[in-house]
């Protein structure tokens, strides 16, 4: 009996998807037609962010095949990447055949290597024309995005197994419209509110646009969700505050678009403990970015998503850890939380570690190292870390017991 119980608690369901996650701007390099590139290259002296520009990043625009070889070495059966709107639609209404062909080659290469493709259409970056003339606070933004999404569905078809419309809409609006540390560098709660609505509208419009090409395509969104809990579980006020903040960061966006979701992509990085309205994380274990590592939080989030009755994929989970000192323990304990959730009936179908490579961590530049693979930014040589081999064993055996 004990043996049987152990097996069920360490084995993942048959067909579980194992992968890693990246995004175009963070790894490709020379994304010159995008808002981010423009913002990085035209930095006024008094602006602190970004700490450095993305430049050639990891040169994955050219080295994508090497990257997919690494995925194979990881024994992965899936991969999450993004395609770059700024490349595919360099001018409003004009699509680039050359760039569509490029990404078709990329996707074919992934498929030939036995990887199911999860592809994000918008991962924080937009074309420069969109940034200059519209922006995500503009009421036309959703329709413009849906035109691009439909074109992607027509061109890429089933080279994409899972269409992801937008990555972390609420992180985008927080960083770009509240904190002002990402383009368009605004601190305007009203615009943030409007942008949130536009993202929901953009998701539902693009969902319908992709489905109009082929109703069989699987379409979802990627949502970052942090867990909130009171420091003292008997403090009613903190409990209410935590529940409210959790609702704001999860269900307030997912509930209104529920009928336009075939699956939920969950990005989980950290949790927040609340004490008299303030953050009171114990910070016993933290990443290089100071994010509190709390695997139990992932289990709570997964269980809370059960009510949607949809397949769930963890589309990002990882940590900045330049010494690779915590990564193995991190992966192990996060996956234990996944297993616990699966055993409690959560329809968790896959896990993607963020990230395959050390890459451009937005306003922070290149110093935070999230990769299973170290990248030399001059030679672009890729060197797997110890944790790479650990993750590859788990994926091979489909089990935490390795
Ligand atoms: C984003 C990634 C980012 C990662 C680590 C997520 O919010 O989707 O682009 O690199 O977190 O900060």
Describe how the helices and strands are arranged.
Blueprint: H1 2-10, E1 17-21, H2 24-27, H3 35-41, H4 60-73, E2 78-82, H5 85-88, H6 97-112, E3 116-122, H7 128-133, H8 141-156, E4 162-167, H9 169-178, H10 189-213, E5 218-224, E6 227-230, H11 236-249, H12 251-257, E7 263-267, E8 271-275, E9 278-279, H13 295-304, E10 312-316, H14 327-343, E11 348-354, E12 373-375, E13 382-384, H15 386-397
Parallel strand pairs: 1-11, 2-3, 3-4, 4-5, 5-7, 6-8, 7-10, 10-11
Antiparallel strand pairs: 8-9, 12-13
Helix pairs in contact: 8-10, 9-10, 13-14
The chain binds beta-D-glucopyranose (BGC).
What brief labels describe this structure?
globular, TIM Barrel, disordered N terminus, 402 residues, single chain, alpha/beta, binds beta-D-glucopyranose
Bound molecules: beta-D-glucopyranose
Gyration radius over CA:
20 Å
Q: What is the overall pLDDT average?
A: 97
Task: Assign the CATH class.
Answer: Alpha Beta
User: How big a fraction of the residues is strand?
Assistant: 15-25%
Give the structure's gist in a few sentences.
Helix content is 43%, strand content 16%. By secondary structure, it is an alpha/beta fold. It has a single domain, classed as Glycosidases (TIM Barrel, Alpha-Beta Barrel), CATH 3.20.20.
């Amino acid at each position: 009996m004990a043996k049987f119980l152990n097996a069920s608690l360490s084995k993942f369901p048959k067909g579980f998807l194992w992968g890693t996650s990246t995004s175009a701007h963070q790894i490709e390099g020379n994304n010159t037609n995008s808002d981010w590139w423009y913002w990085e290259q035209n930095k006024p002296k008094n602006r602190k962010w970004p700490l450095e520009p993305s430049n050639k990043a990891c040169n994955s625009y050219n080295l994508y095949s090497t990257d997919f070889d690494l995925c194979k070495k990881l024994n992965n059966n899936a991969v999450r990447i993004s395609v770059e709107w700024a490349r595919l639609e360099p001018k409003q209404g004009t699509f680039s055949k050359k760039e569509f062909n490029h990404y078709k080659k990329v996707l074919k290469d992934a498929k030939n290597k036995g990887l199911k493709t999860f592809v994000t259409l918008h991962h924080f970056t937009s074309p420069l024309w969109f940034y200059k003339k519209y922006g995500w606070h503009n009421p036309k933004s959703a329709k413009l995005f849906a035109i691009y999404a439909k074109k992607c569905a027509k061109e890429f078809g089933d080279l994409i197994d899972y269409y992801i419309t937008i990555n972390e809409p609420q992180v985008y609006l927080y960083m770009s419209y509240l904190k002002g540390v990402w383009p368009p560098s605004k601190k305007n709660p009203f615009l943030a509110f409007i942008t949130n609505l536009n993202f929901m509208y953009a998701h539902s419009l693009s969902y319908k646009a992709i489905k109009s090409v082929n109703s069989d395509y699987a379409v979802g969104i990627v949502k970052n969700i942090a867990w909130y809990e009171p420091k003292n579980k008997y403090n009613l006020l903190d409990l209410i505050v935590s529940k409210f903040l959790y609702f704001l960061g999860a269900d307030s966006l997912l509930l209104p678009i529920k009928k336009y979701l075939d699956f939920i992509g969950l990005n989980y990085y950290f949790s927040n403990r609340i004490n008299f309205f303030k953050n009171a994380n114990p910070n016993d274990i933290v990443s290089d970015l100071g994010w509190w590592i709390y695997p139990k939080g992932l289990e709570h989030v997964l269980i809370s998503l059960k009510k949607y009755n949809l397949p769930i994929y963890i589309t990002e989970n990882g940590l900045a850890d330049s010494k690779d000192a915590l990564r193995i323990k991190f992966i192990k304990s996060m996956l234990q939380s996944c297993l616990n959730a699966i055993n409690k009936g959560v329809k968790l179908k896959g896990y993607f570690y963020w990230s395959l490579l050390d890459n451009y961590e937005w306003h922070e530049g290149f110093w935070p190292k999230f990769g299973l693979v170290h990248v030399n930014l001059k030679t672009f040589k890729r060197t797997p870390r110890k944790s790479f081999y650990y993750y590859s064993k788990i994926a091979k055996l489909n089990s935490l017991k390795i």
